[in-house]
Design brief:
With 345 residues, this protein is mainly beta. Helix content is 2%, strand content 43%.
């Protein structure tokens, strides 16, 4: 066990919806555009209890660079999501569309970032309704409170800088679990500034103590808990073993018995993308963003069906009353109303 960095308070700029986009920000669309037909693939009868027969996939925002990390703000009834190359977080509201919420979101350096992914990646909300960000360029996990003050939760392990935190999830006791691949580093695995010799999955306790849970995953990416928090899911996007993985969560919060929940090798051969961010529903089904769409698995690992976007799909989040699934895929954000709901709604 190692101690996370001391808490550092930083003031950041929040952009109101009417604020003009800063120079260099790629344009973005607020109007929904048509989605191709036949975007629901039903492989198992159980999918019919999840996706209603009249379900429609709707594109609600488009024209970004590469979107990630959708999270629903219950208090404000709006969606937040990252646009990693643009180093920004956007806000989407019903009837208002998308607006710039936060920039910079993941890199605050004075010099231009030399890589492709400087911004925030995964986003989540803590128990108090504060936004928590996995920041690529600044290589850290931060909390942004409602007053615009940012606090560093973790940026080092064993006195070495993290690679580039990717995705994150809270356990009900307040522990934060996150993945740390090197995709936000300009040189990724071979970047000369990479300080850790591995890619880790970590836990940070509320008092700031950071624990390495495993360093045996080549490229850890998405992360999620089962509803009862007895299983921790992690994706491996390594070309050598693309897969959705599962770990047992021990009584002390560590993990064990790592195993392949579902192999993704067959999917990456036929579709662009890799297993990425994911969420579970109240029934324990896993909704995994991946090649060409969202893959829906039963708790026993059976692939029940897919929501097809046709492009590399990065992440998902529950919103509204908990039955609406928001999807970030390529340059666009989608949503679909389902006959299930996310935990906590």
């Amino acid at each position: 066990m190692k101690t996370a960095s001391s808490l550092l308070l930083i003031t950041v700029t929040l952009y109101a919806a009417a604020f003009l986009s800063p120079p260099g920000l790629q344009s973005f669309g607020q109007e929904a555009s048509p989605v191709p037909e036949n975007n629901i693939e039903r492989l198992d009868p159980r999918i019919n209890t999840i996706i209603p027969t009249d379900a429609k996939l709707e594109k609600i925002a488009d024209g970004f660079a590469w979107v990630e990390g959708p999270v629903w703000n219950k208090e404000g009834s709006f969606l937040l999501f990252s646009d990693i190359p643009n180093n920004a977080v956007f806000k989407w509201e019903e009837g208002k569309g998308a607006s710039l919420f936060l920039k910079p979101s993941g890199y605050t350096g004075k010099e231009s970032f030399s890589g492709k992914e400087p911004g925030s990646n995964g986003l989540t909300m803590d128990a108090k309704g504060n936004l928590v960000l996995a920041e690529h360029g600044d290589r850290r996990i931060t909390r942004l409170d409602k007053y615009g003050t940012k606090t560093v939760i973790a940026d080092r392990y064993d006195e070495k800088r993290l690679n580039s935190p990717n995705d994150l999830v809270f356990k009900s006791n307040g522990d934060l679990y996150f993945t740390d691949p090197p995709f936000g580093l300009p040189g990724t695995f071979d970047d000369p500034e990479k300080e850790l010799p591995f890619q880790g999955v970590y836990r940070v306790s509320p008092d700031g103590e950071i624990t390495l849970l495993t360093n045996e995953i080549k490229a850890p990416n998405g992360i999620a808990f089962s509803p009862d928090e007895k299983i921790l899911y992690v994706t491996d996007v390594s070309p050598e073993r693309p897969a959705w993985l599962a770990y047992d969560v021990n009584y002390d919060g560590t993990v064990s018995s790592g195993r392949v929940f579902h192999d993704a090798a067959e999917f990456v051969k036929t579709e662009k993308g890799a297993p990425d961010g994911m969420k579970t529903d109240k029934r324990g089904n896993l909704f995994g963003a991946g090649p060409g769409g969202v893959y829906i698995f039963s708790p026993d690992g059976t692939l029940l069906g897919r929501i097809k976007t046709g492009v590399p799909t990065s992440n998902v989040s529950w919103g509204n009353d908990g039955s609406v699934l928001y999807i970030t895929a390529g340059a666009a954000v989608y949503r679909i109303k389902l006959d299930t709901a996310g935990p906590g709604f």
